[in-house]
Amino acid sequence: MNLIQYILTRVGSYLVILFVGITVTFFLPRLMPSDPIEGYINQIQTQAGQTMDPAAITKLRQSLRELYGLEGNLVSQYFNYLKKVFFEFDFGPSLSGFPKPVSEYILQALPWTAGLLGVSIIFSWLIGNLIGLLAGFFHNTRWATGLEVVGVILYPIPYYILALVLILLFAYVWPIFPLSTTIRPGPMSIGKIRLIVYNSFLPALTLVLAGFGWNVLGMKALSFANKEEGYVQFARLKGVPSRTIMFQYVAKNSFLPQITALALSIGGIFNGALLTEILFSYPGLGLRMRTAIGNGDFNMLYGTVTISIIAVATAALIIDLLYPFFDPRIRYQ
Amino acid sequence: MIRLNNIVATYSTVRGQVNAVDGVDLAIPNGNIVGIAGESGCGKSTLLKIIYGDIIYPLALSRGHIDYGIESNKGEITTKDIQQYWFKRISYIPQSSMSSLNPVVRIRQQFLDFLEPRQNKKAILEEIRDYVKGLDLPPEALDAYPHQLSGGMRQRIMVAMGTFFKPDIILADEPTTALDVVVQKGILLLLMDIQEQMKNTILFVSHDMGVHYQISHKMLIMYAAKVVEFGDSDSVFKASLHPYTKMLIEALPTIGDAHQREGVSGRPPSLWDNLVGCRFAARCPFATELCKTEEPAFIEHQPGHFAACHHVDKVRQA
């Protein structure tokens, strides 16, 4: 077994996950009893307030089916869909923003979500674990107990409650931050970056705080347990300075399960990010998804859900591939 | 010479204080392998902790002091500052090498991480490589992670760590217990070799009287928080002065002798009780009324051979 085989197995299972996820997103809406085309035609007829010529309706139905990839039987639709998603990154035109293609909307929203999510995951994971490490390593001090209490209070609060509390406190009671995100398009400049940071601060804070408590508690328990391990005791008896014990011995061993936990929780964090975006009207994927549901924009919904699946699976794959660098006991098998 | 002056080591527990080592007073001459034996809970490990200066709550040195007989540039080393000389003047080889090495850090890094940060790591690493080669270890072992080495190799690494700085005193707490007999023999021979070259004092704890017979120059037998016998291994094994030692040795099997061995029946007294008289009296075949009321003193019965028993003569004749 070697490195290449290890990577190939991981990438293989990654592709299977993507395939299953995308297949489910394709079939699930098609199990619904309603037909989007008939619904659309009915809507036009009601709006027009009169019955249309049956021949015109048939023609309309035909062209709509072609436009939205709904012609042919289910199997050919499915393969057509797979081909378009995997090879052309094409989800068809947006129904509500016709004729702009969905992929263009997604590419616009993606950097916002990726930026928000990336920054907040890094902060909540690193800071949370660092605090947990300190609290576990110095577990018998008063401030360590205080930090644990903060963790216990924060971790059960859901994203949406935390977001609402922050909006209430920092956008309404003390209007330090904007109530919703307003960023005009335009070229990048220092002023614009400042504006982005200012506007993204509250949503990011929500995500950081929500993920924070769990990291603190997990890391505290891990490092507290690790402190009692034979190698830590022996290091102490060797006269290893306690800073080295904390980072080289306790931290290095305690971080391993936390890396796994991060990979497992990325899906949940992503969900939280989508909700948070909606509450802050933050121009990312979550808001797109929300408006797509409101407008009945099926193509947009397909696109955003598919890209979410790809994003979560890719993040987990990256962590999986990096894991052997952190734990030498993992073999490439 | 390490002089233990009436050492009393106390653990604080919820039930109150208990003396795990209760009045140990003896002098260990330099350059010996001293075997420490006794059953579980007799205070062997606590005594080692006290000597090593690893005295943290709930353990406390409630009476007595230790003269290590080691000079540093700041004067004689005491229990208070011995921690600064850990692994330089006094070192410790733990029982399980399996769990005593950090699984995610290379061995060479674990060799280096207790050095002063300003020391030249590269030069020292070269020295370590040379030293390790001399201990029958492949030099690549230093670049490995602990899980890549066998149990015997790991224990050799521990021995290498403990002896690299040529410490004056080495404390070994059952260093071979977790190993199979062949590997065990290798480690024991290695320790003996090192001791012969460096002439340091090794305090060697083991339950295995056979191991002691092989390597110890002197024997120290503990029973219920007290030292009951101390002397040269030869005279302790051939002419024990304390009935407990005698019974321990008689329980050893010998090759070619097929008859059933007798264990030492009964249990040691609880250290929580108010102990009067000889602590071994309840299990002792020689015990008399005197033993139950008066504690025997730890006396030098022959030159260099100490024992705490009222009936030394009877034990010798038996």
Architecture overview:
The complex is a heterodimer of chains A (333) and B (318). Chain A is mainly α and 333 residues long. Chain A folds into two domains: 36-88, no CATH class; 102-326, Orthogonal Bundle (MetI-like fold). Chain A is built from twelve helices and no strands. In chain A, helix 1 packs antiparallel against helix 12 (298-326) and helix 6 packs across helix 8. The model of chain A has no long low-confidence stretch (mean pLDDT 84). With 318 residues, chain B is of the alpha/beta class. The two termini of chain B are 34 Å apart. Chain B has a domain at 2-85 and 217-317: P-loop containing nucleotide triphosphate hydrolases (Rossmann fold, 3-Layer(aba) Sandwich), CATH 3.40.50.300. Helix content of chain B is 30%, strand content 24%. Chain B has helices at 44-52, 97-100, 107-112, 121-133, 151-163, 181-198, 209-215, 233-238, 243-250, 289-293, 312-317; strands at residues 2-13, 16-28, 33-37, 59-67, 71-72, 75-76, 90-93, 169-173, 201-205, 218-223, 226-232, 299-302, 305-307. Chain B is globular and about 65 Å long. Chain B contains eleven helices and 13 strands. An eight-stranded mixed beta sheet of chain B has the order 7-8-9-3-10-11-13-12, sandwiched between helices. Chain B has a three-stranded antiparallel beta sheet with strand order 2-1-4. Chains A and B meet through helix 9 and helix 10 of A and helix 2 of B.
Q: How much of the polypeptide of chain A forms β-strand, as a percent range?
A: under 5%
The level-1 CATH class of the domain at 2-85 and 217-317 in chain B: Alpha Beta
* Number of helices in the DSSP assignment of chain A: 12
- Runs of chain B in which pLDDT lies below 50 for 5 or more consecutive residues are none
Give the averaged pLDDT of chain B, no decimals: 90
Q: Provide the residue-averaged pLDDT of chain A.
A: 84
**Strand line-up in the sheet with most strands of chain B:** 7-8-9-3-10-11-13-12
**Uncertain residue ranges of chain A:** none
Secondary structure tally: strands of chain A: 0
Order of helices and strands of chain B: EEEHEEEEHHHHEHEHEEHHHEEH
Gyration radius over CA of chain B:
21 Å
* CA-based shape of chain B: globular
Looking at CATH, the homologous superfamily of the largest domain in chain A is MetI-like
- Structural class of chain A, by secondary structure, is mainly alpha
Helix content of chain B: 25-40%
Name of the CATH architecture of the domain at 2-85 and 217-317 in chain B: 3-Layer(aba) Sandwich
